[in-house]
Model the fold of this input.
Amino acid sequence: MPDVFIDNQRFYNPVDYVLQQIGGTWKAPVLWRLRTKTLRYSELEKDIPHISQKMLTKTLRELEKDNIIEKKVYAKVPPHTEYSLTAKGKMIIPLIESIRNTGLELMKEEGIDYDAMIKEEKKNVLKK
Done:
């Protein structure tokens, strides 16, 4: 297979290219949350509990640079920013969904009930 160069980056194959676009710890969780609605920065930050502000900002900038999400800034008091999927981002969601479903099946094989863990976590958050 020939190497492909895009913006001075080498990609060895199409899978490598896609994983560069959506890989890493935080890109898929951000995209997953944007799959059904537009969200403000603070909503993303609140909904992804383990991400730091620095990593959320970096992730959003990378996704925007790759034209996977779009950012809309409202110049009002107080100013706010909203993020939504582009057409390219919407095209990626079925892939993330497939990977997620595979992960859930593999967890189930290991005896992990992820859905029950989510419900328990939500209960604990409501108690706080």
User: Anything to note?
Assistant: The first strand starts at residue 4 and ends at 6.
